[in-house]
Amino acid sequence: MKDTDVLIIGGGMVGVTLALLLAREPGLAITLVESISFPPLEPDAPLPYRPSFDARNTALSRRTVATYRELGLWDDMQLHATPIHEIHVSERGHFGMSRLVAAEEKVESFGQVIENAWMGLVLLRALRRCPNITVRDGVTLTGIRQHATHVTAELKKGDEAFELTAPLLVAADGATSPCRQMLGVNATTTPYDQVALVTTVATHLPHGHVAFERFTESGPMAVLPLPEDRRAVVWTLPAGSEQALIDCSDEEFLAQLQAAFGKRAGRFVKTARRFAYPLALTVAQTQAQPRAVILGNAAHTLHPVAGQGFNLCLRDCLALTERIVRQLLSLIDP
Question: How many domains does the chain have?
Fold first, then answer.
């Protein structure tokens, strides 16, 4: 007895992407459960911000871009993404720097930068177009029962309690992952004692598709190209020091940003609202359990210095999809 073939707990970038990858196999039925209600996605509605698709930006590797192209989603994502043609790496107060040029490496770019909220909009719209994906949002996971042949998830929406059974459950519900805890999988979390302050800025010079990685006394700082000649800033700061930069005037923030980063990107002239996110290294004890797999931030989180967190998660999604499809084909044609 089963209600679905694959039950995904967590409707963030990893959970939704995995569902879309699996949905290419018409013989699979996928159910995605998310605790927060998805936005209505009306054409004229403002850009929806939610915990999984927030104010941060993601640097997508070339393999990640290729995956979304294979899913038929890249044309929509490209409208809100910017390719990286050059990368400059330097350390404040020290001589020299590293400069990488995509043309010299014979690639069209080193990846693309996209705002998470725009990426979420494209993913959620694609999710609603897939006939073999059932979306259950606004639903809370209350328990898990593992059996030899299936997993039963105990769920609740409002006052209604119900269960869903599947041969495979995927936990993709974030770093604090209630699902991982219910599966009895421990995780080691090591705080970096740092936060990432993120915002969008403009400079008096065009960005020229150049990404900067700058190592400062407070930690690494990234300045990345965005559409309309905006730049994304990810500023690593000691925990507790970020609030003053969030609360100060835009002029004071720009002055402190300029002093910390220097003049390599030009003069910072405008800033958007600032947000801060705590940073920690999280590693789950295992990613595989009987009839269950742990993916995304539920399995591992790392420092954003190299911009590889989501890209590593997507590789996990690709590997899991390959295994599931291979198993399905073996059952059809042993």
Answer: 1
